[in-house]
Design a protein that fits this description.
- It is a single chain.
- The protein has 161 residues and is an alpha+beta fold.
- It has one domain: Peptide methionine sulfoxide reductase (Metal Binding Protein, Guanine Nucleotide Exchange Factor, Chain A, Beta Complex).
- The chain contains 3 helices and 9 strands; from the N terminus they run αααβββββββββ.
- The strands form 2 sheets. Strands 3-4-8-7-6-5 form a 6-stranded antiparallel beta sheet, with no helix packed on it. It has a 3-stranded antiparallel beta sheet with strand order 2-1-9, with no helix packed on it.
- Strand 3 (90-91) and strand 4 form a beta hairpin.
């Protein structure tokens, strides 16, 4: 089994047990306007989006319709609507989650995550602090990075003709 598939499977199996129990995302909002209460986030987000964005959960692999999104456009944070990725940076990583080789400038912030014991780089929306996914060093050129994103943490806006 390829390393990427093994990690994806292990993460998906462990996700329900690893999510923090607090209502706050571990990443603070970069914009004070987005320091919302638990009740405000729950009202704003679907239960699945709340679990990922605010509790650093992980959706099941191959469950997001955004895996198959091929149109030109922009992927935005489902929490605050900040543009995070261009469709030009999206690729099929085979992991079951939408993957990108590069975020838009000043869109995401990172931190080290030890939830699976092995350190990983977690990234989140720079504006609202919502958890998006993890970045790995096994992506395509030109960056060699794989930003492995939870689809429920994103919305897609097609380019206007």
């Amino acid at each position: 089994m390829p390393r990427r598939s093994l990690l994806a499977s292990l993460t998906a199996l462990a996700a329900p047990f690893l999510a923090p129990r607090s209502a706050e995302a571990a990443s603070a909002a970069g914009d004070p306007q987005w320091n919302l209460s638990e009740a405000e986030w729950k009202q704003r987000l679907s239960p699945a989006a709340y679990q990922v964005l605010r509790q650093e959960g992980t959706e099941r692999p191959f469950s997001s319709p955004l895996n198959n999104e091929k149109r030109a456009g922009t992927f935005h944070c489902a929490g605050c609507d900040l543009a995070l990725f261009s469709s030009q940076a999206k690729y099929d990583s085979g992991t079951g989650w939408p993957s990108f080789w590069q975020p838009l400038p000043n869109a995401v912030a990172t931190k080290i995550d030890f939830k699976l014991i092995v350190p990983r780089t977690e990234y989140h929306c720079r504006r609202c602090g919502g958890h998006q996914g993890h970045v790995f060093g096994d992506g395509p050129r030109p960056t060699g990075k794989r930003y492995c994103n939870n689809g429920v943490a994103l919305s897609f806006k097609p380019a206007t003709p």
